[in-house]
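Comment thread on ticket #2218

A.B. wrote:
> Attaching the input chain for the structure job we discussed in standup.
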Amino acid sequence: MRIPLLASFIVFVIWLSYEIKKSNRSVTQQEKSFWEKERQANLTRKKSLKDLAYITIPLDTLPMDVCSEEDNIKECLHIIHALSGQTIVNLTGYSNTELKLMYGAPNITVLMDYDQNYTLLARTLQSWASLLYEKNLIEEARSVLEFAVSTHTDVSGTYKLLSHIYRSNGQSEKISELLQTAQTLHSASKDTIVRILQQSDLSDD
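C.D. wrote:
> Ran it. Output below, let me know if you need it in another format.
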């Protein structure tokens, strides 16, 4: 009985050793590929940014005067006003290496600034809409959420709340439009958002 057991153990050790070596080779190749891509990115010359999808905040159509003296909402409005004077671009899902390859290494700092502005915008819009919704200001919340979706936000709560509003208003067909937008997102949150909307579309609640 001991000989088959020993043979099985030896086979297992050989197999495990092989798998470890294979994994190490894979990791080494991935690292090599990454650093080569990074090297090429750092050598990429500066390119024009005129074709970026710049975002303009529509202050004239958003509910800027609603509950504007409430502390939490006031804070959101302050951020929105400040961002309206900044350059905003949604670059969610793109790594710095990818951005350098696309637009040139010299542009990476300004691109990061644009994207940080967008991240702050997306989070603020979600917070603002939630506060409005809690006050039963449904249409005002809807307008904020719809603007957020138009910028291709990847904040899952935005899609969840807006789909709930559509369903409550008897506009379930609009959830399909949200789903189409979600399926075009360049974000790690894409699958989660798609799943939320698919479940919402099937819900009778």
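A.B. wrote:
> Thanks. Noting for the ticket: The mean pLDDT is 88.
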